[in-house]
Amino acid sequence: MTAINRISDAVIRAGQRLPRVVQKDTPFLLYRHVGNVVHVSGMIAQFEGDKPYLGQLGAQLSTEQGAKAAELSALNILAWLAEATGDDADRVDCCLELNGFVACTPGFTEQSQVISGASNLIVAVLGERGRHTRTSIGVAALPFGVAVEANAKFVLRD
């Protein structure tokens, strides 16, 4: 019998660690598993309550800092994916879609480079199964003043 390929172990191999997850008393779910699809709600750039990347890209933050913020959003996405799958990466068939939102100034045009921080981490953790379709959108502001928010959909194996 082979050991379970854990999402949390793959994250550690990528040089990160998953944050703890808690479903707070909100009118919405932080993930929903329907059929063989897991949809993870928008995850802001935070780590266990710490929000190190506040402000707008093109004003207070650089593209490189934005990519790090997007990586934090992806860590939260992966934490909820681990929760949804019992931390079993072998259950993940693919990351179907990633949508990223970047708080930025009107002239900022590097949203794609910012959201690549999230894309790169998901691919580092899931390999080819992590490659996904993607949208990168610039917005005026995000919750709590964070720089990045992202959501994702994953297809699970039966």
Written account of the structure:
- This protein is an alpha+beta fold.
- It has helices at residues 7-13, 63-85, 111-126; strands at 31-34, 37-44, 92-103, 133-139, 148-156.
- Strands 1-2-5-3-4 form a five-stranded mixed sheet, covered by helices on one side.
- Helix 3 links the parallel strand 3 (92-103) and strand 4 (133-139).
- The longest helix has 23 residues, at 63-85.
Précis, in short:
With 158 residues, the chain is an alpha+beta fold.
Give the secondary structure arrangement, pairings included:
Elements: H1 7-13, E1 31-34, E2 37-44, H2 63-85, E3 92-103, H3 111-126, E4 133-139, E5 148-156
Parallel strand pairs: 3-4
Antiparallel strand pairs: 1-2, 2-5, 3-5
Helix pairs in contact: 1-3, 2-3
| Overall 3D shape | globular
Largest sheet: 5 strands, mixed
Number of strand elements: 5
What share of the residues does DSSP label as strand, in percent?
Answer: 25-35%
Give the strand line-up of the largest sheet: 1-2-5-3-4
What brief labels describe this structure?
alpha+beta; 158 residues; five-stranded mixed beta sheet; 25% strand; globular; 3 helices
